[in-house]
Structures are given as C-alpha cells and as structure tokens.
C-alpha cells in the first residue's frame, strides 16, 4: 500500500528530496533547483501556484532546473506623450490607438482641455483601487462551504473529482476550488504544510489507518467534527471523538 502511495506521488511530480532554490532579493526572481516543484516554491515564497503560473506564462506545472521564475506580478510599462501646439485629444488618441474616453481615463481627466507641455499617459492601465485581500477566516469558511457541497459523493481510490474521491483527492479538489493548491497525497500534505497544535475550521486533520503514518485526512469544520472521504461512507461529516478515529489522530496542518 505504501509503495502505491509513493508511486502516485512520484507520477504527480511532487516527491523530491532536495529543495535548494535561490531568490534574487533585488529582482524577486527564483532560480529552480533540482527537486523543486511549483507547490513547494509557492509555499516557501508566500505566493499561490496559480499566480506563479500566470506571472510566468506557464501552461502546466512542469518546471526545469535553472529556470527563472518571477515571484511578482509583471509590471505595466507606461508610455507618455508631451502635448504640442495644435494638438487635440482626438488627434493624440488616434495616433496612439486609443479612444478619447480611454485617453481621459488613463489621465484621470474630467474635461477635454489640454495645454502645451502637458505630459499625458498614452499606454498602460487606468488607476484602480487594489481590492482588499480575502481574510484567512473567510478563506477557511469558503473551504468548508465548498467541502459540504460534495457530501454523499462516493469513495474512489485515486479519485479527485466529484465522480469519486479518496481522502487527499477530496482535500486537494476542495482547496483548489478556493484558490489554494495542495500536493496530492496525505503523506505529503502532512509533511509539507504548517503544523498547528489545535485545528481551526478549514485546517486539515490527519489519522493513521491502514498504514503507519498519515494515511487518512479530512477538513476540520469545528466542534470536533471533520468532513472527509471515507472508504466505506464516501464524503461525510464525522466526530473526531468517534471511538475509531480518536485513537488514530496524528495532528493538524494548515494551508492558510
């Protein structure tokens, strides 16, 4: 059974032994080293896997040694134009493939008045307010709400879709639905995530069942209860004080 778990992890490209990448402090660029994965890089640098892929134009999770990965969103390059005698907003916007409305928006203008020597932004993005980040509490609630949607889904060894889940396939699927990437197996989720002494809602709780070590997990929802994909029950909510689960509890990990 343990051999099967290791094989699945290796096939997913996430079981490695050496994590020694380097980051340039000045450029916020990470150099991929042997054994790195996008998930590990994201965890070590406090960015999401989805952002890493978007910022580096990656269409898959594949990376290679010595590859340079940006840890920041790409900057928008802004071009400007200095108003000359005889210029109009229509003439300037036409020369720079803009509409008058776009040109005024880029420069926060409320009228069509311009003057010689005025510097206008002619490419880039109009200033917008940065949305407030989603709090850890709301993210945890989103995880729990998403997980409850699949109560009754049957158990399937190796399953990671609503057609059927195993325990780690269920947690990975639910967390990715709210923008958090997890590794595939229970063992690597246990070793790769941050340990917490007491679980909070949204954290993962781990148990030892058919094999030594973390062989089963669920999502803690509060009040000593967790939601999980059980081999005999499918996705269900269970009390952690249950006589079967209580002595098998190993600990909790958080992805927040």
Q: Could you provide a short overview of the structure?
A:
This protein is of the alpha+beta class and 256 residues long.
What does this molecule look like?
The chain is an alpha+beta fold and 256 residues long. The chain has 3 domains: 2-70, Roll (Membrane-bound Lytic Murein Transglycosylase D, Chain A), CATH 3.10.350; 79-123, Roll (Membrane-bound Lytic Murein Transglycosylase D, Chain A), CATH 3.10.350.10; 136-254, endopeptidase fold (from Nostoc punctiforme) (Alpha-Beta Complex). 27% of the residues lie in helices and 21% in strands. The two termini are 30 Å apart.
User: Which structural class do you get from the secondary structure elements?
Assistant: alpha+beta
Fraction in helix: 25-40%
In which order are the strands of the major sheet placed? 8-13-9-10-11-12
The CATH level-2 architecture of the largest domain is identified as Alpha-Beta Complex
The Rg value, from CA coordinates, equals 25 Å
Number of folding domains? 3
Sheet with most strands: 6 strands, antiparallel
* Unreliable stretches covering 5 or more consecutive residues: 1-20, 125-136
Overall mean pLDDT: 82
CATH topology of the largest domain: endopeptidase fold (from Nostoc punctiforme)
What is the count of DSSP helices, taking H or I runs of 4+ residues?
8
What characteristic shape results from the CA principal axes? elongated
| H/E topology pattern | HEEHHEEHHEHEEHHEEEEEE
Determine the N-to-C terminus distance.
30 Å
- Look at the structure and name the CATH superfamily of the largest domain: endopeptidase domain like (from Nostoc punctiforme)
């Amino acid at each position: 059974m343990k051999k099967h778990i290791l094989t699945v992890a290796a096939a997913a490209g996430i079981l490695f032994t050496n994590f020694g990448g380097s980051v340039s402090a000045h450029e916020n660029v990470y150099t991929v080293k042997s054994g790195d994965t996008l998930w590990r890089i994201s965890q070590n640098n406090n960015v999401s896997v989805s952002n890493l892929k978007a910022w580096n134009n990656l269409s898959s999770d594949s990376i290679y040694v010595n590859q340079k990965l940006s840890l920041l969103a790409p900057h928008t390059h802004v071009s400007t134009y200095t108003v000359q005698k005889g210029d109009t907003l229509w003439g300037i916007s036409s020369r720079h493939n803009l509409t008058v409305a776009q040109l005024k928006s880029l420069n926060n203008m409320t009228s069509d008045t311009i003057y010689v020597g005025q510097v206008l932004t002619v490419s880039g993005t109009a200033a917008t307010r940065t949305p407030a980040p989603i709090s850890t509490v709301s993210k945890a609630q989103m995880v729990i709400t998403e997980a409850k949607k699949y109560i009754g889904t049957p158990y399937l060894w190796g399953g990671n879709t609503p057609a059927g889940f195993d325990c780690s396939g269920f947690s990975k699927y639910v967390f990715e639905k709210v923008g958090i990437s997890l590794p595939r197996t229970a063992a690597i989720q246990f070793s790769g995530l941050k340990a917490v002494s007491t679980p909070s809602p949204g954290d993962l709780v781990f148990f030892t069942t058919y094999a030594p070590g973390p062989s089963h997990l669920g999502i803690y929802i509060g009040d000593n209860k967790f939601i999980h994909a059980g081999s005999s029950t499918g996705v269900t909510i269970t009390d952690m004080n249950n006589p079967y689960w209580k002595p098998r509890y190993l600990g909790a990990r958080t992805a927040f």
